[in-house]
Structure formats: C-alpha cells, structure tokens
Write a structure and sequence with these properties.
- By secondary structure, the protein is an alpha/beta fold.
- It has 8 helices and 7 strands.
- The chain has a single domain, classed as 3-Layer(aba) Sandwich (Rossmann fold).
- A 7-stranded mixed sheet has the order 3-2-1-4-5-7-6, sandwiched between helices.
- The longest helix is centred in the first third of the chain and has 13 residues, at about 15-25.
- The two termini are about 30 Å apart.
Length: about 200
C-alpha cells in the first residue's frame, strides 16, 4: 500500500514529536552528523534534520512522497526503499536513525526493528515513535465512545499494529537493543498520543 502525498508540509504529529527529537539532538555531542529517516514520507522531517546540521538520507515506499521531498528539499537525499530491504549495504550506518509513526503500519515489525537497529552506527542513537496504547487509554477510548474512530478498520493502509511500552520494548530487545528509554508525548502521559523509544548503541 503506497501513501499519496500532495505537499511537503509537516504533519500534525510533527508538532508533538519534533520537540523531543530536537532535545535529543541538542542534548549530546556528535562526532559525525549523518542521519536517516525511515519512512520519511514527504521529507518534512528530513528537512528539519538538515537544518540541524545533519547530512540526511530519507527512505520511503511512497513514490509521491519521495517526489514531493525531492522537489521541496533538493539538498536532502530521498529515495524509494523499504525497511524490508538491506538498507545498510545500500546506505551504510548512521549516527542518528529516525522513524516517526511508521512501525504501526508494518506487517512484519520484527523485520522493521532489525533494520532500524542495524542502521545505527556504534555510539549512535535510534529515535522511534509510534501511537501510545495502554489499558487505561483503551478504557478511556471505550467509555468516551471513540474506540471505533481510534481503531478504525476503514482506513486504507492504516495502523495494523498497536503497541504499548511493554510490547515495543520487547520488540526492540528481541532485535538486540540494550539501552532503551521511553517517553510519552502529546496530552498528559497517561493518555499520550504517541510514545518515543530512544535507543543508544
């Protein structure tokens, strides 16, 4: 399933995801500044990373997204590609590996996690986000009558995996992650829109 992009503007999710990504970038020194955005879509996050001084590569399966990215941000390398490919052989390793709101769309999350971690250079960082789920949040969704809207089955190419901190942590640990830190963003933590896993290698 390929997503269609009509412009290169940031999505609504970037408003609550980018501040944490900025903090991670500013909170450490970088020996190199080479980054990849897995599932880069229209390249908006690639542009943000480039403005932070990174040499950026973006990868996505969407031809329209890559076209928008190349048109709007010609200084960023954006190419069609998949997390199910050997991206390390194709692109090498990176000091910063970013993937925002992508893993929940993957039919093979273990393959995604393996690729994600394999791209992180020694001493590098992985920054991964996905919608946050928990027992309490699901109860609130049910009581408020918003369960059908949230877990809609009518979104072509929509979310097919729904992670909690526990299940995302297990996924990353199974793939070999040793140090994973979680944070929740958007709304109050108990009802957060998304969670972020930061992996240090």
């Amino acid at each position: 399933m390929s997503y269609n992009y009509h412009d290169a503007n940031p999505t609504y999710a970037n408003a609550y995801l980018w501040p944490s990504l900025h903090n991670e970038i500013l909170g450490r020194s970088w020996s190199r500044k080479r980054a990849i955005d897995l599932g880069c879509g229209n390249g908006a996050t690639c542009d943000m990373l480039s403005k932070c001084g990174f040499d950026v590569t973006g990868v996505d399966t969407s031809a329209s997204g890559i076209e928008q990215a190349k048109t709007a941000f010609p200084y960023v390398r954006c190419e069609i590609g998949s997390v199910y490919e050997d991206l390390v052989t194709r692109f090498g390793s990176f000091d910063l590996v970013v993937s925002l709101e992508v893993v929940e769309h993957c039919i093979e999350p273990r393959s995604f996690a393996k690729t994600f971690l394999s791209l992180i250079a020694p001493g590098g960082v992985g920054f991964l986000s996905t919608p946050y789920h928990s027992y309490l949040k699901n109860v609130v969704l049910a009581v408020s009558g918003k369960m059908d809207g949230h877990f809609t089955a009518l979104w072509d190419g929509g979310h097919i995996k729904f992670f909690s901190i526990k299940t995302l942590g297990t996924l990353l640990q199974e793939a070999g992650a040793q140090q994973v830190r979680f944070e929740r963003v958007g709304r109050i933590p108990q009802l957060a829109k998304s969670m972020i896993a930061v992996v240090h290698c």
